[in-house]
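Run: sequence + adenosine-5'-diphosphate -> complex structure.
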Amino acid sequence: MSVALDAPLDTTFDYLWLAPSPDDPVPEPGQLVLVPFGRRKVVGMVVGTKKDSEIEPNKLRGVIQVRSQLPALNQQWLALCRFAAEYYQRPLGEIALPCLPKGMRTESTVALDRALKKLTSSHPAREVADRAPAPQLNPEQQQAVASIISAVGYQAHLLFGVTGSGKTEVYLHATELLLQREREAGYPAQVLILVPEINLTPQLEASVKARFPTLQVVSLHSQLAEGERLRHWLSAHIGKADIVLGTRLAVLASLPHLKMIIIDEEHDTSYKQQEGLRYSARDLAVWRAHQQQIPVVLGSATPSAESWLHGASGRYQRLRLTQRAAANAQLPTVRLIDTEIDKASDGFSKPMLDALRARLERGEQSLLFLNRRGYAPVMQCEACGWISNCRRCTAFMVLHKPERRLRCHHCSLELRIPSACPTCGNVDVQPLGRGTQRVEEYLQQAFPGARVLRIDADSTRRKGSAQAAFEAVHRGDVDILLGTQMVAKGHDFQRLTLVGVINPDTALFSQDYRAGERLFAQLMQVAGRAGRAALTHSDATRSEVLIQTRYPSHPLYRALLAHDYPGFADAMLAERQAAHLPPYSFQALLRAESKSLALALSFLTQARELMPHPGISMNDPVPMTVTKVAGIERAQLLLESSSRAQLQSFLKPWMQALRAIKTRVGWTLEVDPIDI
Ligand code: ADP
Ligand code: ZN
Ligand code: ZN
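>> structure
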């Protein structure tokens, strides 16, 4: 029988099955088996049971053990993995096995058996909590729910709703009605809800559980402890979990009774895995829904260019929520502060400081957004021009003042802060620019009585600390919340009436053609944290978003002022179409890594010349923007085609030819790259 193993070889492996006793059933596809591999024993997955192996049976090694305590992964799940493997040009085993929790893949079955026992043993009747009340849906929400649940078979719905418009309510109502309908018809049913951020799962999990106290709700994300992850995964796999809530990896969960998929904040780049198997969970979710002929809901206030295009062409059904849902909640007013006129010192213009002070006086919360962690992005010696370059990367060492370190965010190298310039001995080495730590320090001086809380990757390293920090904000123990994109997403802060954006301009002039799309989404998201509830009915406290910029007439900011995403998105699509960029073209990126940049580039040149490529344009191999990381030089070759099918049919033989090249250069292929 053929077995997929987690090995970088694009093949499955043949093994012999000898039944221990004559009436033992032959393992079926999707079943896990323990097999010998080299000198080890590894867990693999049966993918075919045909007997016509090319190897003589007496030369085949035998299956050691069948994990018959587990139901086989079903055909549809295997088909999903097969599709992902083919589409992303990876061996099947590198997809189907690593996505299983560790406890299913180890030689010992102790953890697995224990988890299964726990799941199947009958519990004493759980005390059922009261169901949290559901608000009466407004007409737009009702219409969205009705469209979603009335669709027959596969249908993708693009739920385009402004921030705070009550998309979550739409998800919950649709979920409830759909589960109810299936149950009444006598079918088991499961719903998968994907969210972009681990930090958002507790909030959503709590509301889902409160709303559906009698249902089994489990979460799946990378920060679960192994045992928990195993139990949750199995609960979905054996059909016990009704609702699975998770981050991108949950798209590959086994859900035998899947009846609907919801993707919240579908535009979010966290849905793209950026290492190993570089898949898009959003794209796989849509494929999965199509394969299973079920509805999929993609929700966002700023849909991705791809989804916007499908919405315009009618491939996705567009559903709109145009108003904030909560009574008296209003979209915040967006104001631009022209820093050519209102000069910023220490990062703050006077209007920004005034607005902060007014919130402090009224006892309301403010949020400041600065997407740069650390104290200062670089240190410099003014006497000789020395700057804090990382010796291993094409990048600066970032000053982290509280930790008293220079840190490279690319290779994690850490150094003590130099007390004098390493080249000329000048003692006056200065930080240049500002990150969240520096802004925090400034705020503490400028507003001595204020409770300032910084939330970024550095302040939340300890497990549970991010959760605790967000709870403090929700409780009202914080006056000024300051943070990176971690604070921008999804949180339903009720007391917040001011959002300040300190320095967004750099993204306007980025090389990356997606930078504008991302900046708009980010600003819209962070702006959306303000004014989610009506604190008072007086207009005086209407919430505000203040953006400091040197380019107040830039079209992106003009669209933002008007809360006009459609206008922005249509203009963006027109530009992309004119430039033959995604979503009007399809890309793949070959990356090469080597100690020598010349070697990496020459490998890419060789790859480029390897075979004819009609209909596919290959760019010149170029060094990556951050060329060197941890001493390794990196270069890339971009492929483009106006046809996805054409690109796909080229990639397969090309990959085979690439694998045959003997080289010391490390390389990977990414399909549909988003960072190029
Ligand atoms: P979104 O996900 O679209 O940003 P949320 O789903 O977080 O918005 O909803 C924003 C707020 O509006 C929440 O506090 C929610 O409880 C409230 N809300 C949603 N729908 C309604 C409704 N129909 N009536 C009153 N409040 C609502
Ligand atoms: Zn110097
Ligand atoms: Zn480095």
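>> summary
The pocket of adenosine-5'-diphosphate (ligand 1) is lined by residues 135-138, 141, 161, 163-169, 325-326, 492, 532 (CB under 6 Å). The radius of gyration is 27 Å.
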